[in-house]
# Entry
Amino acid sequence: MKKNKGYTVIELLAVVTIIVSVTGIIAALITQTLRGSSKTNITNQVAQVGSYTASVITNTIISAEDVVAVDGNNVIDCTQNPTGSSIELLISEQEGTVLYQCANDTISSNSASLIDTTRLKIDTNTPSACYFTCLQQNNDPYTPPSIEFGFTLTQKSDTALFENRESAPFTTSVLMRNYQPK
# Structure
């Protein structure tokens, strides 16, 4: 009898098919891992910037003495619960005022943006994209007002891939601790 030392075409095709299948599965797993990692990075970035922005505004509200204006309209007291896309707070007579404003896809503090506008923006597609509301118990202008504010931060991206898009709402209410009624 004669010994065959080679492989048949069928055996070679079977091995190639198995190698291609395993390679395809591995490539799909690597792609999914990279996409998930990208989504996690973007989610963390939006959460960190949103939390930072909310904490800056919160700290200012806590130390403010009075609300000067909401949406450009002077405020005597907040019993009417004025709402708008900007709020001006009196920090003190010596330090002056701080204006927080939602405009041009960002939140600014005295015209300086609080977010990195090259990567993030205020989501203007939502009804409450960015707002400030001054709340005070009716008929009692001497109680400290509470400032509620909210914004929705989103990834600035034109891509349709889900892993490159993230949006997160941020809403809080802060009591003015140093309130000095007029």
